[in-house]
């Protein structure tokens, strides 16, 4: 995956959208989960890079809605609706939620990957968005790129190369 | 809440000195371990957005070998020692005396991983014990864990706790390089120590060292 003007990049705890022929990408997902919501008929897709499962974890007033699974999904739906997409047409693909480190500590951050995945799935269910495919868990970081024209999500890991889901 | 205006010049200077003393000690330990002359650059102390953090070692996609440990006790936070994969492989070959170890492709041998982990233990331990002496506080590191993967995927663990209350992180970054490497074509040893104190802890450090915080 090379640098390309036709790729919209999404940073950590952030979200954005794109229309074909552009693609949308986020890099270096570890315990974070990349959530793609898309409408193939309109060839439009939104992507959120979720860090934490629940906005109840927030201690201060943090601004990035995309940071938490619960607030990210609803905000991403609204963003796509504002671009003329109906919530009913949306489908989802997700990737990430790895467990990069294994040691045990007092806090539960080491299990944050699986918890992020659970929270994202729960939020998708709440808004009745079908989850078409997923590449989650494991112990590897991922970079993902979605093509709203084909609906293909490209997943790259350091050692296992590319795959399409 | 931490933001770009959080640190004044005095606070920056003090945190730089913390990095200086910690990384200086660590570089000495590493230098003895791998029998190379190492030099460290002046630490940089920055208040960064998470995305700026992800860009610090060649971007979130960059493959790195990293030691990660959490710090508990009076000072809480995360510490990373990040090396290019080729460099980590070289260190491990030196430490084990085996020419065949490499972190280029899995499966990694258990011996190579534990040698790398032990190196991290010694190096990070030196950093933190210098810190503990300087600040006269208890610093309790967890057993270090090894990650060989994308920089973004690894460093994001250091942002989890901070992200609950802020969109910015304070990072004390110290780069080490090989001191006599002047061949432009060859890449010299290059490693980064990242110390990322939790929000309350950086205030604690500054108070301990007599700097008022906002």
Automatic annotation (TrEMBL), chain A:
SUPFAM superfamilies: CNF1/YfiH-like putative cysteine hydrolases (SSF64438)
Keyword Calcium assigned: no
InterPro entries in the cross-refs: CheD-like_sf, Chemorcpt_Glu_NH3ase_CheD, Cytotoxic_necrot_fac-like_cat
Superkingdom of this protein's organism: Bacteria
Catalytically driven reaction(s): L-glutaminyl-[protein] + H2O = L-glutamyl-[protein] + NH4(+)
Coiled-coil stretches: none
Top enzyme category: hydrolase
Keywords carried by this UniProt record: Chemotaxis, Hydrolase
Lineage, uppermost ranks: Bacteria, Bacillati, Bacillota, Bacilli, Bacillales
Pfam families: CheD (PF03975)
Keyword set includes Hydrolase: yes
Purpose: Probably deamidates glutamine residues to glutamate on methyl-accepting chemotaxis receptors (MCPs), playing an important role in chemotaxis.
Enzyme Commission (EC) number: 3.5.1.44
CDD domains: CheD
Organism: Pallidibacillus thermolactis
Family classification: Belongs to the CheD family.
Gene behind this protein: cheD
Protein name as it appears in the record: Probable chemoreceptor glutamine deamidase CheD
């Amino acid at each position: 995956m090379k640098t390309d003007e036709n790729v919209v990049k999404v940073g950590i705890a952030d979200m954005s959208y794109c229309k074909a022929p552009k693609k949308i990408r986020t890099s270096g997902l570890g315990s974070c989960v990349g959530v793609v919501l898309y409408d193939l008929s309109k060839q439009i897709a939104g992507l959120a890079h979720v860090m934490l499962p629940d906005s109840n974890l927030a201690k201060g007033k943090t601004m990035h809605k995309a940071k938490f699974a619960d607030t990210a999904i609803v905000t991403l739906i609204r963003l796509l609706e504002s671009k003329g997409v109906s919530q009913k047409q949306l489908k989802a693909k997700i990737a990430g939620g790895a467990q990069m480190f294994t040691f045990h500590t007092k806090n539960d951050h080491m299990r944050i990957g699986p918890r992020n995945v659970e929270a994202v799935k729960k939020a998708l269910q709440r808004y009745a968005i079908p989850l078409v495919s997923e590449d989650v868990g494991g112990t590897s970081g991922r970079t993902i790129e979605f093509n709203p024209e084909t609906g293909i999500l490209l997943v790259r890991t350091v050692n296992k190369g590319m795959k399409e889901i | 809440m931490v933001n770009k205006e959080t640190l004044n010049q005095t606070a920056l200077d003090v945190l730089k000195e913390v990095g200086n003393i910690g990384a200086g000690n660590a570089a000495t330990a590493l230098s003895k371990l791998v029998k190379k002359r190492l030099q460290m650059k002046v630490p940089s102390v920055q208040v960064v957005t998470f995305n700026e953090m992800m860009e610090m070692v060649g971007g979130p996609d960059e493959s790195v070998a990293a030691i990660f440990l959490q710090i508990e006790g009076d000072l809480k936070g995360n510490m990373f020692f990040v090396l290019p994969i080729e460099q980590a492989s070289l260190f491990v070959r030196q430490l084990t005396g085996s020419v065949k170890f490499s972190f280029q492709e899995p499966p990694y041998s258990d011996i190579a991983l534990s040698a790398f982990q032990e190196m991290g233990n010694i190096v990070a331990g030196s950093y933190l014990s210098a810190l503990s002496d300087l600040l006269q506080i208890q610093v309790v590191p967890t057993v270090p864990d090894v990650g060989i993967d994308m920089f973004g995927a690894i460093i994001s663990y250091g942002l989890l706790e901070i992200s609950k209350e802020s969109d910015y992180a304070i990072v004390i970054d110290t780069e080490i390089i090989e001191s006599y490497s002047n061949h432009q074509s060859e890449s010299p040893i290059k490693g980064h120590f990242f110390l990322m104190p939790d929000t309350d802890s950086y205030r604690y450090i500054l108070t301990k060292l007599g700097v008022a915080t906002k």
